[in-house]
Design brief:
The chain is α+β, with helices and mostly antiparallel strands. It contains nine helices and eleven strands. The strands form three sheets. Strands 1, 4, 7, 8, 9, 10 and 11 form a seven-stranded mixed beta sheet that branches.
Length: 293
């Protein structure tokens, strides 16, 4: 790999934190390192002696074991997640949304998607819907100041897309998602996800998200509690769409429903706001015309 590209302030911060920029760049799969890449580097909060006691165990006394090294990338991610879990009073609100109209719309668009060479996934609709919801609920598109005394409200909408890459979780960002059409969003998701797997994302394609979507629908599950990714104040989790019986009077009707899991920072968002946000989000999904406007 060529020489690491980093500003003098980033290099100074790396020296202060004891982070080897060359190793970090190699683990991240790119040459440019930004300040946010150093967040949590070195494992996050230093473990106390009491903390270490839980993990400092000779497991070999119980049976055969072998060691597998944890990459620098995974160590940085682990530090960030541990800090987020320790510092954010997070609550998860669960709901579900009728996606029958979206699935019918996707089916109608399939020939055009093939002609364009674009894979039109449900995630593109979720990204577009979340962008609109963030405009309608600006407190969800905000961040607390470092001292917790003010709220930074953002006049842009950038959506993070969590990607389960072979080398660890990565979160590339769809910039200005509220200004982009469905086809462009679908194309960008596919491109960013592919390059995340190959460790070819640039530093300017990471960080700065208004909110993140983490999608387990392709794997399974009915619900989970995603960890808020600071400095964001909320994260939206999706699991596998399920068929739910809905009663229209005395008549049962099967309806495809996607489970929604919204974790949020309770210092900024209260339970009623979270419930209203997800209810609005579900309404957007139920009528794709609302998303396309």
């Amino acid at each position: 790999m060529s020489e690491v590209i980093a500003s003098p302030t980033v290099r100074a911060l790396a020296r202060e934190k004891g982070v080897n920029l060359e190793e970090l760049a190699r683990d991240l799969g790119r040459e440019t390192i930004a300040r946010e890449d150093l967040s949590g580097a070195g494992g996050g909060r230093a473990a106390s002696a009491g903390d270490r006691a839980y993990w400092d165990v000779d497991h070999a006394q119980f049976g055969p074991v072998h060691a597998e090294p944890v990459s620098r990338f995974a160590q940085v991610a682990a530090g960030n997640l541990a800090a987020a879990q320790a510092l954010i009073p997070a609550v998860t609100h669960h709901d579900r949304a009728d996606v029958s109209a979206i699935e019918a719309f996707r089916a109608r668009l399939k020939p055009e998607a093939q002609a364009r060479g674009v894979k039109l996934t449900a995630l593109a609709f979720h990204t577009r819907a979340l962008a609109r919801a963030l405009r309608a609920f600006p407190r969800f598109n905000a961040s607390l100041s470092s001292d917790g005394k003010s709220l930074v409200l953002k006049d842009y909408v950038h959506i993070g897309i969590a990607v389960d890459a072979a080398h660890g979780l990565m979160v590339p960002v769809i910039r200005d998602a509220d200004r982009k059409g469905l086809w462009q969003i679908a194309s960008e998701i596919a491109d960013l996800a592919a390059r995340a797997q190959e460790r070819k994302l640039r530093s300017d394609e990471m960080g700065g998200a208004s909110m993140t979507i983490t999608n387990l629908g392709g794997i399974g599950g009915t619900a989970f509690t995603p960890i808020v990714n600071p400095p964001e104040v909320a994260i939206l989790g999706l699991t596998r769409t399920e068929t739910v019986t809905v009663w229209d009077g005395d008549q049962p009707r099967p309806v495809p429903m996607v489970p929604l899991d919204l974790s949020y920072d309770h210092r900024v968002i209260n339970g009623a706001e979270a419930a209203r946000f997800l209810a609005h989000y579900a309404q957007l999904l139920a009528d794709p015309r609302r998303i396309m406007l």
